[in-house]
Amino acid sequence: MRDLERNAALVIGNIGSAEDVPALAFALVDDQPLVRSHATLALGRLVGLAAVKTLRNCWRVEPDVAVRATLEAARESLALPAS
After folding, report:
1. What is each CA distance from 17 to 12, 35, 51, 65, in whole angstroms?
2. pLDDT single digits (tens) 32-44
3. What is residue 18's three-state secondary structure?
4. CB 24 within 8 A of CB 12
5. Number of other CB atoms surrounding residue 45 within 10 Å
6. pTM of full prediction above 0.90
7. Are 20 and 52 a contacting pair, CB within 8 Å?
8. How close are the terminal C-alpha atoms of the chain, in Å?
């Protein structure tokens, strides 16, 4: 099942829109870091205020070091400040 969630995040990142932000935000609380990481990357590819806010909120609470690294990459792709 986790592979399906990860793959869905990949697809959304490639062809999704701002309408997909809520689904990705839901994936950011998944218990598997791999799913959260791919959701983060997908959010970094979407444009819009909702994606930016979701990434900022995730940055504040993400405990996993690897997921935080993908958050950093997503933030850079959207040119978000660190705070």
Report:
1. 7, 19, 10, 27
2. 999 999 999 888 8
3. helix
4. yes
5. 16
6. no
7. no
8. 34
Name the average pLDDT for the chain.
Answer: 84
Distances 38 to 50, 81 between C-alpha atoms, Å: 17, 21
* Residues in the chain, overall count: 83
Written as six digits, the tokens of 3 are 């592979």
Mean pLDDT for 38-57 is: 84
- DSSP letters for 28-80: TT-S-HHHHHHHHHHHHHS-SHHHHHHHHHHHHH---HHHHHHHHHHHHHTT-
Tokens of 63: 């405990």
Residue 72 amino acid letter: E
Q: What percent of the chain has pLDDT over 70?
A: 92
